[in-house]
Design brief:
Layout: H1 2-23, H2 37-57
Amino acid sequence: MAVSRVVLFLGLLLAALMAVASSQSTAPAPAPTSDGTSLDQAVAFQYHTVVDLAAVATSSE
């Protein structure tokens, strides 16, 4: 009798845990806020600024 109660309790506990585990779904990933274009433009702007300053500094006029 005691064994059947333990088995019944463990079965109900396992069923409850499985129900909780399966009820959670994963949320979709959020949409990206930037595709990297603005970062690429900022890097290119800084690169060109450095190149322009170097060209002015090394000009022999």
